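Record pair follows.
FIRST:
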Amino acid sequence: MTVRLRPHHLLCLLTYVGKGYSPAFTANYDAIAMRIEQGEELLIVSGPDDICAPRLGEGEAHCLEDDITLRDQLAARDVGLLLARPIGSGQALTLDDVLLARMRKAFASGATRSACKACQWNSLCTSVAASGYRDTRVNGCG
């Protein structure tokens, strides 16, 4: 199988520590984190992805808002610059330990954080990065 991720969720998974919008959201994200740790390939998608799934049934799902689409664009640009290749819909990515460490180093330095500025989880992610990514759910890949 393949984990479908929107670009800004490439950044979110770096600091995911089991907190989320609801118990269903967190349970789903935990299952996705486990799949990523087992080496499942990532497929970049435009719009809602596997992480968004539990929120899509809610009234006006924030996954569809323009500011979330902007986060995706900023994250795709930043991660693309880091990896020296385009990150966009249809791109496949394998997150191994080397790439995870490289992405976390860039995230901690702020090099890939332009998508995070208006996010409600920004302070949590900053503290997780400052802790050396302690207690994150994705720690090794493949």
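SECOND:
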Amino acid sequence: MGVINFLLDTHTLLWAIREPNKLSKTAKGALNNAEAQFYVSAVSAYEISYKHKIGKLIGFEDIAKNYLEVLREFGAVELPISAHHAHYAGSFDWIHRDPFDRILAAQAYIEGLTLITNDDVFSVLPWVSILW
């Protein structure tokens, strides 16, 4: 069996670090899989920084301020946003307007990653593999 590749939604990363009791049993199992490789989108860095700045991420100040160090300690690989990701995110047919989610969906699809998320907005996208 080879490496299993996952893309973590922003809330999944935050919960895994700070509030693991919010994770599903399946998500916890995936996060504890020694054969898994975890990716975190660059859009999550933006989302965490921005939401912290506007007061929506109370209690996550240290993660917002030390994001890259936290990511390294967690053992995840940063997934940069390519022009291919951005173009696909902007052009695919989905009513959902959240730019963070659109980038995550595009990256999961293009890179062949399973998205670990509790957000059911992704369930309407049959081409995105979801785990929760």
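COMMENT: The domain at 4-131 is CATH 3.40.50.1010 (Rossmann fold).
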